[in-house]
Amino acid sequence: MKAMGDVDEPLDWRSIEVMSTPRGRELRLTGRAAESAHELGVSRWSITTSVKERYALAVALAAVES
Predict the structure, then answer these.
(1) Is this structure's pTM higher than 0.90?
(2) What is the C-alpha to C-alpha distance for residues 24 and 38, in angstroms, rounded to an integer?
(3) What domain range includes position 40?
(4) Are 24 and 16 in contact (CB under 8 A)?
(5) CA dihedral angle for residue 65, residue 24, residue 60, residue 17, rounded to 10 degrees
(6) For site-directed labelling of 26, which of 6, 20, 46, 60 has its Cα 20 to 30 A away?
């Protein structure tokens, strides 16, 4: 969210979702989050997750090809 956010138009955290797929974890972006990633030229994501009891955490790194 920090890499794609805008002070004037913050991202809705619900527009960023980590999905479990047969290929592993994938990031699903909708709305302004998807628009921001496209505008910034994000070509791929690296995602790591952690779960403990009732809590979950995900960290995503955006890669931009130059």
Answers:
(1) no
(2) 22
(3) 13-64
(4) no
(5) 110
(6) 6
What does the pLDDT read at residue 6?
A: 66
Burial of 36 (0-12, 13-18, 19+ CB in 10 A): buried
- Cα–Cα distances in angstroms (integers) from residue 53 to residues 50, 56, 59, in the given order: 10, 8, 18
| Number of structural domains the chain divides into | 1
- Distances from the Cα of 64 to the Cα of 8, 35, 39, 53, angstroms: 23, 15, 11, 34
| 60 CB neighbour count, 10 Å cutoff | 17
Q: Residue 13: pLDDT above 90?
A: no
Residue 1 placed within a domain = no
